[in-house]
## 1
Amino acid sequence: MKEIPATQIANTVLEQLGNGGVFLCTADEEQRNVMTIGWGGVTRFCNELCFLAPVRASRHTFGILKRNPNFTVSVPLHAMRAELAFAGSKSGRDVNKFEGHGITAAPAQAVNVPIVAECELHIECEPVASAEMPSRQVEAAMLERWYPTRDMHTYFIGKIVRCYYTDDAR
Ligand SMILES: Cc1cc2nc3c(=O)[nH]c(=O)nc-3n(C[C@H](O)[C@H](O)[C@H](O)COP(=O)(O)O)c2cc1C
């Protein structure tokens, strides 16, 4: 385990967000869950280094985040396309995504939410704020392109409390 300032991995995260996505883990008293996100990233808010995770209201993750707003982000630094596609297409409502699909839950350092053991880079977050994006505030063309069913995102903003590599090579 090697801690790294989040400022130094912001671009790496941004690139992976656009290259198959990253894993967003959540947990409540009932269940641990993982989904793929492709938007958001490391940002600065309330003068803290934060991670902004945009989650649509329809996601199972959304309900879990409402109950426990801690979350982790695990970033694969090797090809995990199939696993990202799986976590990004199946719902934790129907399947335990941590069982039998190459996505293993491991304990985080500081929050009560797992990380993905197969990934090399991890970000742990405690809640700062969340904000719903109302459809009336989205430009018309973007609204039709990205929100045809008006399944809007809520932005979950978490303060980065740990950021680290778990592989020995770094
Ligand atoms: C590459 C990729 C990026 C995605 N990005 C997001 C995202 O940023 N926000 C979101 O709400 N859903 C996103 N999704 C869709 C969710 O990962 C997907 O709906 C998932 O099945 C939700 O899981 P859950 O119901 O267990 O929460 C993405 C999917 C893929 C494949």
Note: The chain has four helices and ten strands.
## 2
Amino acid sequence: MNIDDVKKIAVIGAGNMGHQISLLCAIHGYTTTCTDINENILKKAEAFTDSYLPGRVQKGRLTEEQARAARDRITFTASMEAAVKDADYVIEAVLEVLDLKRKIFADLDKMAPPHAILASNSSAIISSKIADATKRPEKVLNVHFFNPALVMKLVEVVQGPHVSDETREISMALCEKLEKVPVHLKKEVDGFLLNRIFGAITREALWLLEMGVASMEDIDKAQVYGAGHPMGTFRLMDLTGIDLTYIMGMEAFRETGDVRHLPSPSVVEKYCNGEYGQKTGKGWYDYRDK
Ligand SMILES: NC(=O)c1ccc[n+]([C@@H]2O[C@H](COP(=O)([O-])OP(=O)(O)OC[C@H]3O[C@@H](n4cnc5c(N)ncnc54)[C@H](O)[C@@H]3O)[C@@H](O)[C@H]2O)c1
């Protein structure tokens, strides 16, 4: 099998990631089926598709004909069996729960054609933990898109020890067809590339603050004006949610036993005070008068 044999893509899960990944595939010429067990989520995904495509035409990014063709290529269905029965490539984007993903991959193995590659968009569950639920482990890998998937260019393609070179090559080539920038991880590692790098930056920024070396404003300024980051660690945490920083740190510690993942004292304090960032009006910065 090679990249030219990939004509039909099925996306499992139509939530935050799945609905955008489906649309991305349809826009780039793939017959795409998007499935979800939740009918409301499917309806929302379809409504998003119907509003997004005309918007792209208005902005001059797609012609009317291209938008119409993309719309014709995408279908939404609550039946996973119907979605994957003739798929060449499947991208799973369901909730981040290991048992659920294992069950879905076992089902996909039975429902999808034997040649189909089964990719997981998981941010944290490596495919080694899922591949043995199937009889085709060499075709099961992590292909990690970033949010929002229609916009963010990076995709991490993670080649665990069970993944064949053919599967990796087709997955990298598919990302390029989708106008993404794929990077190849030659080993499975917790957090993959970017979340690890950001984890390290976040830990350093918190250490500098807690040691009293500089204020959070100045640490953020250093990142923005010295490193060209669009925002510093503290602004970013306020945007994504300090609760998420806390929960992900605890999860990563539980998973790996590595104490570097434990949330730092100031993050624990913010979490316990319910100061999660913009969504609660206060996090590192105060948003209540805005
Ligand atoms: N949200 C992000 O920023 C982000 C970024 C990169 C990767 N991811 C990963 O993508 C995956 C999905 O995340 P999300 O944010 O889109 O989650 P989400 O909660 O928005 O969507 C998950 C969807 O899966 C559906 N689902 C649950 N069980 C199902 C089943 N049996 N069959 C079909 N659909 C089912 C749910 O109804 C829901 O709509 C996770 O593994 C996550 O780690 C998320």
Note: The beta strands are 8-12, 31-35, 74-77, 89-92, 117-120, 140-145, 154-158, 181-185.
